[in-house]
Amino acid sequence: MKRVTAFVGSARKKHTYNAVRQFMVYLQALGDIEYEIVVLSNYHLGICRGCKQCFAKGEESCPLKDDRDVLIEKMMASDGVVFATPNYAFNVSGIMKVFLDRLAFIFHRPRFFGKTFTSIVAQGICGGDKIVSYLDLVGNALGFNTVKGSCLTALEPMTKQEKLKIDRSLARHSQRFYKRLIKSDYPVPTWLNLMVFRMGRTSMRLELDETSFDYRYYKAKGWFESDYYYPVRLGVLKKTVGSLFDWIQVRRTRNRQHGSALSL
Ligand SMILES: Cc1cc2nc3c(=O)[nH]c(=O)nc-3n(C[C@H](O)[C@H](O)[C@H](O)COP(=O)(O)O)c2cc1C
């Protein structure tokens, strides 16, 4: 049995919510799936104040007391996660963005390895494809194995043809997602993921010290020495290029350190 949790960023139970439900119905037809649909507006989420305490001192130091950890727990307890949002002004909805900001410390310290992620965007006219790409990037940065999401277009009231097209798209999407979900694996990183990890960790090693929570976290995980976030066999080429990414970041950081800091 696989557990899938969807986080919906619309306050009304219409297109986004219905699309997620349909997606789950298709998933359940493919295998043994238990699911939960979390409507973000039913939870209390504070607006990030930008103090960066979560980066420097750890997420426990966040001054906001809200449902962030309840939602993260739901993600940790899932094999698969879906972020679903309506397109609002060519972007995710406000509540979805508030949620993503509350998760931002996890971009520094990714943790959802081996779990599968995807996104669903509902829109009236256009612009949603970029939101799908954005959410897929978010899933990737959180550590998930990301499956390309889908963008569903319909004006209100929805026509029969629009509904048919959306259902077909969700059926294909659920198949892509299910395939990845049942693998639950720890893949060899893509070039982009390898670069982000190696340059990010080298930058942290050189720019931070024991006073930083990020630094201590990376050190405790062995990430300053490891090939990647999790044990994985890199081929000779990826091993070599990985070292090159570290080297490039050393040079970039040294150049940066030669510049004088602005006190803004
Ligand atoms: C504030 C607001 C902004 C919107 N902006 C866009 C937009 O930029 N592009 C678009 O195609 N649809 C836009 N829409 C339409 C919604 O994306 C569309 O109706 C969607 O299906 C709503 O999902 P829901 O039924 O889950 O709330 C907007 C709707 C609202 C309420």
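^ flavin mononucleotide complex. The mean pLDDT is 97. The pocket of flavin mononucleotide is lined by residues 10, 12, 14-17, 86-90, 122-127 (CB under 6 Å).
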